[in-house]
Design brief:
This is Intracellular proteinase inhibitor BsuPI. It is built from no helices and 20 strands. It is mainly β and 263 residues long. The chain has two domains: 155 residues, Immunoglobulin-like (Sandwich), CATH 2.60.40; 97 residues, Intracellular proteinase inhibitor BsuPI (Immunoglobulin-like, Sandwich). The strands form five sheets. Strands 1, 3, 5, 6, 8, 10 and 13 form a seven-stranded mixed sheet that branches. Strand 19 and strand 20 form a beta hairpin.
């Protein structure tokens, strides 16, 4: 996840520092176990770049928008388990630098399911931005701050329910035709990364179309909103099968019916 905290109206600058590897570091662990990992920073610039690293909690709100908070702010935060090798580093020009971290899972036999947090990586200095024109007053300059969020996930090996609910389904209509909007809520204790698709059947039971949804990434309690475009449909009744396949033993589905109008 690459987050632009601010941007000028004259275009976005590119980050001065890069990350090598995945933005999700996931570990299957036991209570009392310790694991270690590396964050590899790359500096493509011709001068040194200072980088700050720190932890935050990550959740989504009831509409699926990301929310960052202080580490340890919710019951499934693993931020208190994590120690960073360094909080500020300088990456030489044209080189890479590895920063170590360690996760020490408490020896608590009641731990179950998934615990997570976000390791934030951002430059020590903001990107320069262009000043906005202000002929009758002071010029206003907006500086850009780029940051990466690396998700550090610990999945406790053993029992722990995976459960996904489909809520607030709505059939929407605009100039492009019909669309099904639905919120997916992770009601279990394990994270889910399902592939989502919709199958639309006409009144004869024939498959009219299949629509792929956006890949979802849901921690326990998270919400992900899906909007699946159906396009223009002939009038008549239809049935919808909505599927979220987690790529393992967990496949979730919902069934809906609606009638397309004649307009």
């Amino acid at each position: 996840m690459l987050v632009a905290l601010a941007a000028t109206g004259e275009g976005r600058a590119q980050p001065r520092i890069g990350l090598m590897g995945d933005l999700v570091h996931a570990y299957t662990v036991q209570p009392g176990q310790s694991v270690e990992g590396l964050v590899v920073l790359a500096n493509p610039q011709d001068r040194p770049q200072t980088v700050r690293l720190y932890l935050q909690d990550y959740r989504t709100d009831d509409q699926g928008h990301p929310v960052y908070a202080e580490p340890g702010s919710h019951a499934r935060s693993n931020a208190p388990w994590i120690r960073l090798g360094q909080s500020t580093v300088t990456v030489p020009p044209g080189e890479q630098l590895a920063v170590a971290y360690a996760i020490r899972v408490p020896p608590d036999g009641t731990l179950t399911g998934t615990y997570w947090s976000a390791l934030m990586v951002e430059p020590g200095e903001a990107e320069p931005g262009a000043a906005s024109p202000a002929p009758d007053g002071p010029r206003v300059s907006i500086r850009q701050v780029w940051r990466y969020a690396i998700h550090l996930v610990t999945d406790i090996d053993g029992p722990g329910e995976a459960r996904l609910a489909f809520v607030r389904p709505r059939l929407l209509e605009d100039a492009g035709g019909l669309a099904l909007q639905v919120d997916m809520v992770n009601e279990g204790v394990r994270w889910l990364r399902p592939q989502v698709w919709l199958e639309l059947y006409d009144q004869e039971g024939r498959l009219a179309t299949r629509v792929d949804g956006a890949p979802a990434h849901l921690y326990p309690g998270d919400v992900a909103r899906q909007r699946l475009e159906l396009g223009s449909l002939p009038p008549g009744p239809y049935e919808v099968l909505l599927v979220a396949d987690n790529g393992d033993a967990h496949v979730f589905a919902a069934h809906y019916r609606f009638v397309a109008g004649s307009h």
